[in-house]
Amino acid sequence: MTDTLTITDNRTGKQYEVPIQDGAIRATDLRKIKTSGDDFGLMTYDPAYQNTAACRSRITYIDGDKGVLLYRGYPIEQLAEQSTFLETAYLILFGELPGAAALESWVREITVHTMLHENVKKLMEGFQYDAHPMGIMLSIVGALSTIYPEAKRVQDDEIRQRQIRRLIAKVPSIAAYAYRHNTGRPYIYPDNSLSFTGNFLNMLFKMTEVQYRPHPILERALDVLFILHADHEQNCSTSVMRGIGSSQADPYSSLAGAAAALYGPLHGGANEAVLRMLKEIGSIAHVPEFIKRVKGGDGRLMGFGHRVYKSYDPRARIIKQTADQVFGVTGRNPLLDIALELERIALEDDYFVTRKLYPNVDFYSGLIYQAMGFPNEMFPVLFAIPRTAGWLAQWEEMLLDPDQKIARPRQIYTGAAPRDYVPREKRQQP
Ligand code: ACO
Questions:
Q1: Ligand 1 close to Cβ of residue 305 (< 6 A)
Q2: Which of 109, 162, 340, 425 has the fewest CB atoms within 10 Å distance of its CB?
Q3: By C-alpha distance, which of 253, 85, 270 is closest to 172?
């Protein structure tokens, strides 16, 4: 017997049985609830999709109350400890951990796609010297659709697979170009003898040495951070990726849009905002005053709170451990003490406790990135690199899902009733 929901419409006295599947009703089933034949039928009103599942997904599972995050069933803690970013990207995209041969060919396929078309350098020249690297990155990613016009054939599996590899490989190269552009340094070509993160560090920081050698602890720390950021189910940017992709736009255009959504300070721009906030607070002595201001409604405690996690974000816990390893190499970030004090006070304070506000992934990641030598503006870009894998997995899942159509929400119209055009000379308005 299927579970059903019985709805009585007080307006008509009629009763309706609506099937419940997987803890959800189909919003379209509500359309049969009408007051008359020409009534459109009942809709749901859910601004910001706070209680609407827009897809079925097999990729990432989050239990926000328990602080659980699984990629394809594997706990994030185990992946962060034992996997690599590229292996995790494979898992996220294809559903299973690769065997040795599959992993080797996957790594090779990504590695051979790290070079950028030389035209990208000309595009880079068009940006101001101080252009935000996230603005550069998302523009160049969008521009790649003009370099790979075949990408628009999104129903062709072989073509889709090629773009997936290109994007995972090229986004770090674009990010590195953006950084080198900002710092006025020559662009560095990829070194395919290095790991994914080792090569990324090479493209960022290589100077005159013949071969750049990444510090193994920093290389691994970045890999762990990339694993933690690889996917996070239906967040703002992923929904944009699916939304744009649902019109069958090519993946470069869709991913540029997703990156734009990530740029905002309430999403992937939060780690940048955390650092600005810590700098503004300035010292531990000013922390209570700052908390008081936030509680009074003057600003937010950036890096705290999450739409889904109502307990400690499991990624924040892993990042805290990674921070210790990084600071062992780079020296302690002086802003860490302010962050620790903020966390200590907030976790005891009634305002934060009752609203279930805990540190999220962005609270500590910026401190690590800063200690590793990244300017604040690069933080959202560092988020976008690994999230590329998640965006692409979600995009492909959406394209192959027979339930999906072009995304097109409804609205409740609250504007003017029909009225006649008023000639300019007869209008009351100034
Ligand atoms: N500081 C202070 N108060 C907060 C915070 C915060 N960081 N976050 C939420 N609140 C308060 C709200 O003012 C609200 O209080 P009220 O009930 O008295 O009005 C209550 O907690 C619920 O907040 P909402 O805004 O309804 O929560 P929502 O789920 O919409 O927002 C969000 C989630 C955007 C992440 C929010 O917590 C926030 O702005 N955090 C700071 C920015 C941040 O760190 N973003 C990164 C998120 S992780 C990521 O995207 C990778």
A1: yes
A2: 425
A3: 85
